[in-house]
Every structure is written in structure tokens, then in C-alpha cells.
Amino acid sequence: MNSNLRGSLANSDSTSSTPPSKRASLNSNSNNKLSTANNGSRLSMRNSTVPQAPHCPASNIKVYVRCRSRNQREVKENSDVVVSTQGKTGKEVILKHGNTTKTYTFDGVLGAESDQESVYEGVAKDVLDDMLKGYNCTIFAYGQTGTGKTYTMSGDLQTNINGKLTEEAGIMPRVLFDLFGRLSKVPEYSVKVSFIELYNEDIIDLLSEDDGRPLKIYDDTNNKRSVVIHGMDEVYIKTPEEGLDLVKLGSNKRKNQD
Ligand SMILES: Nc1ncnc2c1ncn2[C@@H]1O[C@H](COP(=O)(O)OP(=O)(O)O)[C@@H](O)[C@H]1O
Ligand SMILES: [Mg+2]
User: pTM of the predicted model, to two decimals?
Assistant: First the structure.
């Protein structure tokens, strides 16, 4: 059996899963979400042995919030800490303003104590599991500039002297290494990567060697729930390192370097 699996990683945080029957769809209403990202990199995988996933309920969106601690500038300015969380992993964000306290509940809240590994384990790993079961998946990070989208999604893209990721590696490099680790047990597969940036109204192919001419987006005539980005480069990779190189290449080409 051949199945074409898709995972999307976007800088504005959410994760999603689509049942195999809806696999052609880029945007599905069957999702897992995390908050923190702003350009999109997509990872597609063709695997000849994965089983069909069971039917997915209509909505499978999960929303996570990651709160960072104050940076040096904010500490220097003595800015108030108005947000409190329940440690490394909780479900509530508590906002205090004067005598008013408001509590907001999410699928998960990763406090300032959370590190890159716990974010990957708590948010992204399950999405990769779902993708390998045959669902279309998206991890999308959104938030104000400076809140930590790039740190969460990319983080450190370098490997250390032993070829391993560092503790600061974000979701994208961790997905690449985890994915290839799991695929090493699968006899036949292929993985391809695309990386686009939505900047103002333009879609820019960050892996294209062309002049950065904007790509065109169309409704998919075969699938009303889906869209097609015409002419987007899709690059086959055989190792996580090749994927990392593409993420670095594309990241350097982003118009928005925040
Ligand atoms: N959870 C975190 N722990 C430590 N540093 C962080 C964290 N989140 C963000 N930062 C730092 O804060 C700064 C802004 O984060 P960044 O990811 O660039 O924000 P954004 O992409 O949302 O504009 C960067 O210097 C980043 O390293
Ligand atoms: Mg950023």
C-alpha cells in the first residue's frame, strides 16, 4: 500500500491531523495546535508500509501556549510579570492586573521553565506519531514579535561535534531527527521538503534557486477543501542533516528575519 503523508511546520504555532481520506488537503479542520510561528516549511513523506489511520473525528485541534521568561531588556526596565503559569506543563494561564485575575485554559501551557525538549515531547511528538499513522499534520506557531516563535520552531539548527542536536534545537530540527530515526526501521520510504514564506500578500519559495518570484496559489479542483501552490520546489532528502541544511538555507532567505 502506498500512502502519501504530509506534515506542515509553520512559524505561528498550531498542529493538525487530517484523516487519510482528506490527505490532499493542506488545511484541514482536524488539527493539533501550539502557539508560536510565521512562515511555513512543509515536510512530505511517502511510505510504502504505513497502515491506514483510523477515522479521525471532525475536529482535532489542540492549542498550546508557551510563555517565556522576561528577557534582559524587560528585566532592566523592571517590567511587571503579569502572567503566571503552573510550571513546566499545566493547562492554565493566569493574568493579574491590579485586583483583577483572569484564568484562561488551553490544552497545554508550557511555562517559562519548559525547555526545548519538553516542548517537543509535549506538543510535537504526538503530531509526528499521527503523521506516521497517515494523517495530514500541521504545527503552526503564532504570536507577537519577540515572543519566541522562531526559538520554538527552529531554535539552534547546528549540530554538535558528535553530529547531535543541541539542547536549544527547536521543533523542526527535532522532527527531522525523530522522523528519520523512526524511518530507519521502515524498508521503503521517501521524504521531501518544501519551505515557503508568506510575506505581505506574496508567497515566496525559500528553496527555489529562481529570483524569488512570488508563487501562485489556487483552489484544488480535485479537492474543494484544499489549495495548491503552483511551482513550489519539493526537495527529496535522505538524512536529517540534509533537511537541516534546507531549513538553514530557507531561513536565511526569509524576508522577515524576526
Ligand atoms: N523560551 C525561551 N527561552 C529562552 N529564550 C527565548 C525563549 N523564547 C524566546 N527566547 C529568546 O527571545 C528572543 C525572541 O524570540 P524569537 O523566537 O526571535 O521571537 P519571534 O520569532 O516570536 O519574533 C530571542 O533572542 C530568543 O532566543
Ligand atoms: Mg521569528
Answer: 0.82
